[in-house]
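At this stage, I wrote out one protein, both as residues and as discrete backbone shape codes, and that material follows here.
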Amino acid sequence: MIHSEKKWLTTLLICIFAGGIGGHRFYTGHMKIGVIQLLTFGGLGIWVLIDLIMIALGKFKDSDGGIIKNLSSIEKVEKHSDALMQQQLEIAEKESKPEYRFPKINKNAYDFINPFLRERIITKGFLGVDIDIDNEWVVDKFFNPYLSEGKDLPEQENTLLDALSYHPLEEYEADEIIDMDIGINKFCYDGCLYQFANDNKDDIINLLEMDEDHDDWAEYENKFGFFGEGIYHKDYFDSVLGKDKRLRAEIKKLLIEKSIKITVSDIDAHLQYQNRDEIKQTCEKMYNDGEISFAGNSRYFVLEE
């Protein structure tokens, strides 16, 4: 099935409000039919009513034969995967390189990764904001246990190991067994994230499908800890803000107790925080907010005299 590039909701709304003059037909590339509907006021309303029903049922096609429908999360990723696959086939044919078939998300793969996604979003607070971060997590969680022992990854059809892995087109045959160069097929992984967000919508803030011009996007964009497109646990922004406030209070308390200029590394050691970069960023923010003072030598942070 070929999915149209035209948006289902846009087509539906145009049909409702401008169907009588063939607006939805012009939008979907049916120019001649659009003119006929324009001159006949949508076939006296009967024709446009039939079109409206077909659009609502997801059976209306554009001029290229593509189905215009409200895609599910899995259908969306399959659409992207099909487009990427076609692109890779064209490259392979043009450059005489082996083709690589991008696997699609399937229920077994999703069922396999679902509990790990749940565990990670509870502990981390977000998923999908940076493909490199998630790629490192997937490799470490699922692949490294095999690679560290020098074992080949098992060939498991319809599992996460197949569905989320990819090989660079230039270096691998289509059916080559996975080796050391591993990563995420982003389209399949995104499909899992879409489905995970839908299945847990009461607990998830889903910015993957939210337009950046949407009012809610602007609201979250201004929140402390916002990283951009992705899915967030509903309590993430409150918890990260609370964590920041607690860390600021601990740093300020330490500087008051010591009454000396202390380096970021020493602050980290005293607090046993084990995250020097986060301590440094927090101290810089506290300095900019006027909570503490900064001495130039080796970036010492102290309270104002």
User: Anything to note?
Assistant: Residues 98-103, 166-181 have pLDDT under 50 and may be disordered. The first strand starts at residue 60 and ends at 61. Residues 8-68 form one domain. The chain has 14 helices and seven strands.
